[in-house]
Design brief:
10 helices; about 15% strand; alpha/beta
């Protein structure tokens, strides 16, 4: 079972999510919270695998709550709308495993939870690419300085990181490099280890902040 916690200050939103998720045989909603602080209190006594986290909430917002959950806690999916993209970007930097638009349909919601639980950190990759490409324009130029850790990557690992940052899936990277998907997964694992990154989403943010990928270099195919 995938244990899910719902965090949103609107009770009707939580009720809608719960109704969809309770109908799934492999998903169990184990708790609800109305703000980030309440969510942290709930998680201290509740085992959860995935947290659906709203961004703007009273007392503590979803960004700070995500930061405090940390890398050893359950995986976080940020719930956002296009007009709150800047908050979602901050949440991804805080350690969220991905994000989902609040108007996503039931199928997308369920697929997102299963994908994040299975280790695929990028939710709705085409939307993630658009968000990161947009907000790369607002990153200060002085931050775009190559990290010394980049020098530890092999030429092939650097190539793979660049493709991942452009939003390509493992299968797409494999097709372009004429290698198996398993080989790509191995490369990605080594990249994350060498750069001390938690997942693919953080790898994308890292690539932007170091200037490895620049605005306008993204793919937008679904």
């Amino acid at each position: 079972m995938i244990r899910v916690v719902l965090v949103d200050d609107q009770e009707l939103v939580r009720a809608g999510f719960r109704m969809v998720l309770d109908a799934q045989a492999d998903i169990d909603v184990v708790g609800e919270a109305g703000d980030g602080r309440q969510a942290l209190e709930l998680l201290r006594g509740t085992r959860a695998d995935v947290v659906l986290m709203d961004v703007r909430m009273p007392r503590m917002d979803g960004i700070e709550a995500t930061r405090q959950i940390g890398p050893n806690g359950p995986k976080v999916i940020i719930l956002t709308t296009f007009d709150l993209d800047e908050y979602a970007f901050s949440a991804l930097k805080a350690g969220a495993g991905g994000f989902l638009l609040k108007d996503a349909g039931p199928v997308q919601l369920i697929e997102a939870i299963r994908a994040v639980h299975s280790g695929d950190a990028v939710v709705a990759p085409s939307t993630t690419r658009r968000l990161l490409d947009r907000f790369a324009l607002h990153l200060p130029d002085e931050k775009k300085v190559p990290d010394a850790a980049l020098a530890t990557l092999t030429a092939r690992e650097t190539e793979v990181l660049h493709m991942v940052a452009r939003g390509l899936s493992n299968a797409e990277v494999g097709q372009q490099l004429f290698v198996s998907e398993a080989t790509v997964k191995t490369h990605v694992g080594r990249i994350l280890t060498k750069l001390s990154l938690r997942d693919r989403v953080q790898a994308v943010v890292y690539a932007y902040e170091t200037g490895l990928i620049k605005s306008g270099q993204m793919n937008y195919e679904e």
